[in-house]
Amino acid sequence: MTFEQPGNEQIRQLVQLWKEAFGEYDGFWELFLNTGFLPDHCRCITENAQVLAGLYWFDCSCGDDKIAYVYAVVTDSRQRGRGLCRKLMADTHAHLKSQGYSSVMLVPADEGLREMYRKMGYKDCTTIRHLSCPAGQTAAELHPIDTHEYAALRRKLLPEGSVLQEGIQLPFLAAQAQLFAGTDFLLAAYLEGDTLHGMELLGSPESAPGIVKALGCSDGIFQIPGGEIPFAMIHKLTETAVSPAYLGFSFD
């Protein structure tokens, strides 16, 4: 059993595991490879030239802390029960610490996974709120923006103590969602039928009904800072690592 950064053949196998575990979603994983993937941000377990488990991480920061946002943790369904996920996470923690990361964050997809990560030393760290609303009577003024504008405006609107999610994450975000700015808000959102899904709404939540109206939808569901819904978890790699107050959009 070997823990390593995957080569081209291992990446091909890993993508197949991701597709089997999480679904194809109309070429989503090819989109990920084209816009959000760096081979040296990936770890996997191999045995007899076969990938048994793997994961990916995005680079983030909070103050002076370098943070890894771990994404797409997967184990071959035929290999479950061998403790491979726990072993892969332990290896990844050691690797990331050696590379100067202060902590690791992730967003579990459900409560079962949240409990699993608690057993690996992760703790609940940030919360979010979901805002649902119908279209308002008056459309908000908004305009599409590119990733550079989005990054600059997001830094101004993030709550104090937030995780900065920039670099390769923003092209990956823009490949899945549209980016908009208004007088007092910033939005990353996608359409599903007649519903607007706001992956992150920063600024004034009161703008939500007008945003829904402006984008021609009947209703909207927005993720915003605050609230009591558990969101990200953290595993600190150093004694001085900070506990961020907010992690925004997730790809899970």
If you average the pLDDT, what whole number results? 96
Which of globular, elongated, flat, extended, rod-shaped describes the shape? globular
- Through-space gap between termini: 28 Å
Low-confidence parts: none
Q: Write the element-wise H/E pattern from the N-terminal end onward.
A: EHHEEEHEHEEEHHEEEHEEE
Largest sheet: 7 strands, mixed
- Percent of residues in β-strands: 25-35%
User: How many helical elements?
Assistant: 7
Helical proportion? 25-40%
Structural class: alpha+beta
Cα-atom radius of gyration: 19 Å
Strand and helix map with partners:
Blueprint: E1 2-4, H1 8-22, H2 28-35, E2 42-47, E3 50-62, E4 65-75, H3 84-98, E5 103-106, H4 111-118, E6 123-124, E7 127-134, E8 142-144, H5 147-157, H6 169-176, E9 178-182, E10 185-192, E11 195-203, H7 208-214, E12 219-225, E13 229-230, E14 233-236
Parallel strand pairs: 4-5, 11-12
Antiparallel strand pairs: 1-2, 2-3, 3-4, 5-14, 6-14, 7-12, 7-13, 8-9, 9-10, 10-11
Descriptive report:
This protein is of the alpha+beta class. Helix content is 29%, strand content 34%. The protein has seven helices and 14 strands. It has helices at 8-22, 28-35, 84-98, 111-118, 147-157, 169-176, 208-214; strands spanning 2-4, 42-47, 50-62, 65-75, 103-106, 123-124, 127-134, 142-144, 178-182, 185-192, 195-203, 219-225, 229-230, 233-236. The strands form two sheets. The chain has a seven-stranded mixed β-sheet with strand order 1-2-3-4-5-14-6. The chain has a seven-stranded mixed β-sheet with strand order 8-9-10-11-12-7-13, sandwiched between helices. Strand 11 (195-203), helix 7 and strand 12 (219-225) form a beta-alpha-beta unit. The radius of gyration is 19 Å and the shape is globular. The mean pLDDT is 96.
